[in-house]
Fold this sequence. Notes:
By secondary structure, this protein is an alpha+beta fold. The protein has helices spanning about 20-30, 45-55, 65-75, 85-95, 100-110, 120, 130-145, 150-155, 160-170, 180-185, 235-260, 265-280, 285-305, 310-325, 330-340, 350-365, 365-375, and strands at about 190-195, 205-210, 215-220, 380-385, 400-405, 415, 425-430, 440-445, 450-455, 470-475.
Amino acid sequence: MIENIIGPTIRKISKHVLIILFSLLFTLTYGQPGKIMDKPKVDERIEILSIVFRLAGNREYSSEVFKTYTDRIAAHYSLYKDHELIKFIKQIKQESGIGYDAVMSMAIHLDDELNLKLEYIDGSLDKRWSKENAIKFSNLLKQFYRISHSKKFFQQNKNTYREVEKRFLPIYQSIDLSWYSRFYGKEPTEKFLIVNGLGNGGSNFGVAMNIPKGKKELYAIMGTWSVDSMGIPSFSKQDYVPTLLHEFNHSFVNYLLDKDPSAFTNSGEKLFNILKEKMERQAYGSWETMLNEALVRAAVIKYMNDHHFKTEEIQQEVNEQFERGFLWIEALVSELEKFDNQRDKYPTLESYMPNIAKAYHSYAIDIQSFIDIYEAKKPKIVSFEELQNGQENVSNTLKQLKINFDRPLLGKGRSFNGISKESFPIIKKHTYSSDKKSVTIYWDLEEKRSYEIIFTGKSFRTMEGIPMSDYLLRFSTN
Length: 478
């Protein structure tokens, strides 16, 4: 799963995918495209769940990137924020941790009339939902839908939904789904569905429903984190294709660890204990989730290698994983290459999992070395020319600050912000030196004022794309 969070930082992915004729691909590999993966669509079940959890204050469903649409939500639903359903959502969020992908799991286990598909929920609905809470939620949701005139809301936004589906179509047409069966060594027995979540911002979710005696349905619920100059969602391949690849990889990866977690327990726990804070900020609350995410992300890079992405695009993806804390990602990708070079011996990734367990034993032993190597690659501030960190007698007539780094930066973009409006100086502009090892900020300061500036890795990165760690500068004027 992804919290793209996971935060806005997650949306730094940048790469291109080889475009393959989608209909030909599936005719040759699986038959007709619709039998494996339907065209992307907006699903009212996803939208209504996103809306009610927005009303309940869940941050992951509170994006305003697509402001035209979220303003319509606010205007239509503000009268209903104290409905019994919203109160119940707040309760189960507190008691059972209902949020993130648990919300989308519930959405796909409802029929078009918002009735709970009781025959499907056992072993399929996210385990954070008790059967009692799931039934109560469904009943309250149906009541809320009627009282809030949601049918009218969705009808009014029908043209918006069709436009979003149309704009996302090129992403759908870019996916080489045949790679999954070739790489993982298993034919897909699942039905793939892509859903656009219009109010989800940078939050993307991969959820599934097991259908008794039928195909398992796998959903890639894609957020909407970019809009054009008219405020309408825009979907660039370099941003959305890797995320879609990521979500589909989960369906091939997650069960592998579930089958025999014991071989990974010691190494997984050790790695998670060291990286716990960083992982929990991304909603990865266990070592199992962390290891699943690592394998999914390594598989995305493997896909990029196999489809001949540019070297700098692959490196950017690797850097993204370093930044997220998956410091062994290059070693894990190498392990996947080893697997792919021995397919006569290991026909499926599942058959190779004991080797990956052994690799993780070494990752856990070497984790401090991974950390040290990555930290050494980061750019660092070595000096400020006009003041010192913590200085208390800075002249308010000082008009600029020159920041010197230990190595050249990319040399574009702003990468500093404040803790509060009151403690952040008035910034006029900033420039890079010709060698890109220095940045000069031009500002206005006030007398007898305490200032705080955080320099971040958003744009202050090495030429290879490695970001600096956050650096807090504090000073006060006389």
